[in-house]
Amino acid sequence: MSIELKEKGRWDPLKVFFKVSIAYTLSFFVKNKDGKKIALVGGNLGEKYEDNAAIYHNYLLSNHKEQVTAYWMYDPKTIYAKNENIENAVPLGSFKNYLLFFQADYTFHGHSLLYDIVPAADKFLFLNRKTIITHISHGIEGFKKILIQKEDIPLLKRTDYFNCASQYEYNLKLNEWEMPEQKLIITGFPRFDRYPQNQPPKEVKNILMMMTWREWLFDLTKEQFIDSAYFKNTTGLLEHKGIQKLLADHHLHLNIALHPFMKKFESYFTNLTNAENGITFIDSSRETIAYSIDHNDMLLTDITSVSWDFLYLNKPIIFFMFDQEEYLDKRGSYLNMDTDLSGYKANSIDHVYEYLKKIIEEKITWNEWYPKATDYIDYFDQDNCKRLTKRVMKL
């Protein structure tokens, strides 16, 4: 997890020190009176209630309330926890957050313990030997090589379990990440419990366009970003006359979702959309990624992890890796970008248009690579949360 995802210096070291010191001391005297286990759950840097972490938090609330008190950790700068009435929501960095961390029997995080569960955890993690820490993951690994920052090292070492979607992912984390075998568990991803398997659309009318994030773009000026391959190719798709005509002739809707980590560049894109031409920019504060997956019939992407959901559902995908050489040089991938993608691989904007035209005119409503889904996903039974709970909590 790149530290640039959160502004540097956000957590005042002195305030954290006092909160942690008092919370740690108090945790020896404040006992959980109801006898329930305590579980802290968090994901998406506390900025949204979605993905594996949110699905799992809701599962614990719905199925194990008598045995577990499940708390959700949220960014105090946001208002979604209040607006959505999320049960047992606790602001990250609050005194209660630190006290609960030392009391917790379990934590489950989607991205990083440091950003999802308890700020500055790498500085005092050695004080907590009680809590069983589980990384439930964000998406199936493969597209991006792992980035390990200095602050990640103690967190990874201390984590008890790394959840895997499949034997494929288990092997990757064992051999490429070099994680101890005893820490790897295969229970499937909680967010896949939302879907009955194999749900291709009846027709393709709504297209989700979503590109993933790139850490080397974060510090660019506006002028530099607008000159980047990322911006030029994204906007080039929207301005392509053939794509615009295809949308108009077939009454299609192209719904654009910026990756949450690219939100800082949102204002550069919004004036490029035109609802009258079927191109709409999704307001991420109002529409979740889960909703976008449910309400779109196909995906146009580079290599965002949302593609695994579209594969699981057997919906068409077009992959457009406009900066493949740069991406492989600066980040790298465990997958072969030319042979391992579960969808049509486009090498140019014109190529994207050709595949989109093929899908629409030939009425292709399924993913031709769907039989490959079992290479990356082991479970299609909607029992992933149940397996995870049984494996980690023994419930």
From TrEMBL:
Gene3D superfamilies linked to this entry: 3.40.50.12580
This protein's name: CDP-glycerol--glycerophosphate glycerophosphotransferase
Native source species: Planococcus faecalis
Upper classification of the organism: Bacteria, Bacillati, Bacillota, Bacilli, Bacillales
